[in-house]
Amino acid sequence: MATSATTATVLRSVLHRVKQTAERSSRSSDQIRVVVVSKTKPVSLLREVYDAGHRCFGENYVQEFLEKSPQKLETGRYDGGKERDSGVRNLAMVETVDDEKVV
């Protein structure tokens, strides 16, 4: 598993490449949201990314979202499931709803 220093270095590298790509496309990197996909990743690794300053995470499964949410990680994707009325904390937004019963 990566160390905190390695995780922070990888994150900085990705954000730098996004900035370079944005500049080549005549866009501001502020217009681009980098979503760290937390699917199947352990909370310890996500905590390292969070501690390195990143705040936008994406999760596909409600069960994992509910497990990670109390860890005070901001998460940006909720795909539905049985726990729809469970009082999810730290949910900044829902980008995709794949089933009408969720809304």
From TrEMBL:
SUPFAM superfamilies: PLP-binding barrel. GO terms for molecular function: pyridoxal phosphate binding. It comes from the Eukaryota. This is YggS family pyridoxal phosphate-dependent enzyme. It comes from Tagetes erecta.
